[in-house]
Amino acid sequence: MRLSVRLAPILLAGALVCSWPVMGGQGHSNALGTVAQADHARLANVQASAGADVYACELLEADEGGLLRVQVGTGQIYLGPLSATQLEGESGDVRAHIIRGTLTFSTPAASNFAVETPAGILRAESGQSAAGQVTVTGPHEMVVSASRGSLLLDTWGEFRTISEGQSARIEFGSTIEVVCSNKGGADQKQDPPQARKDNKLGFYIIMGAATVVPSYFIWQEMTESESKPRR
User: Fold this and answer.
1) Which of 28, 76, 147, 201 is the most buried (most CB within 10 A)?
2) Strand locations in 151-212, DSSP E?
């Protein structure tokens, strides 16, 4: 009898634990990325910290002198100072909307990761692994650099290639706000407005290495820093 009395609270506690919903696991499964490194950076308007999950349409920002590195599947994105982006889609099919500043990214082969820019959708060419950088340099201009592998810019049906080691200065006539949606992957997005489709671009290849080299070293740091021994 005494043994039964002593065991009753333990059994009751075990039953309660087993009946709790596993909220943490469910939340993590819906995350599009995880913060890997943050310094003077914010996630959803609060201070970002390593290990935090990133969900669809949450604003990612790096302040002046800050940086933010986010693991997205088996790839990574890196925000430089005064930069901002949002992730959209679902696991395995993610887009990063560049809002301002500089976004550097690395993506493995056969990845569905892409960057949505004012000039179109940027992704690795032919499903290959790639690393690159997008910098919004003005209200009607941006620069795209391919550090490793070639990048393909899809301007709503017109395709332009930035080969490895090249940069391209891209001019666009009008800026149309990108509305982030958390209702599904890229295949569920509606066609862009006609004004955006008709937006004529200036596309100029820059052969100088000055723009490409920094993004390559950032990519090396992103992909190799975890395995380097600390000094």
Assistant:
1) 147
2) 151-155, 158-162, 167-172, 201-206
Instruction: Provide CB contacts within 8 A for 204, sequence distance 6+.
Output: 168, 169, 170, 171
Q: How far apart are CA 87 and CA 90, in angstroms?
A: 9
Cβ contact 156:138 at 8 Å: no
Q: pLDDT tens digits for 212-226? A: 445 544 555 555 554
Average pLDDT value over all residues in the chain? 77
Q: Where do the domains of the chain lie?
A: 69-224
Cα(102)–Cα(85) distance, rounded to whole angstroms? 9
Task: Give residue for tokens 């990214």.
Answer: 105
Question: Distance (Å, rounded) from C-alpha 97 to C-alpha 84?
Answer: 9
**Predicted confidence band at 180 (pLDDT cuts at 50, 70, 90)?**
confident
Continuous segment of H or E residues that includes residue 223:
helix 212-224
Return the closest-CA partner of residue 78 out of 148, 134, 147.
134
Question: Closest Cα partner for 208 from 169, 152, 170?
Answer: 169
Residue 7: band (very low, low, confident or very high) from pLDDT cuts 50, 70, 90: very low
Domain covering 69-224: architecture = Sandwich (2.60)
Which residue in this structure is represented by tokens 């002593």? 6
Alpha carbons 163 and 129: distance in angstroms, whole number? 13
The Cα 192–Cα 176 span in angstroms is: 10
- The residue count of the chain comes to 231
Contact between residue 112 and residue 85 where contact means Cβ atoms under 8 Å apart: no
State the Cα–Cα distance between residues 44 and 65, nearest whole angstrom. Answer: 19
Are the C-beta atoms of 111 and 73 separated by less than 8 Å? Answer: yes
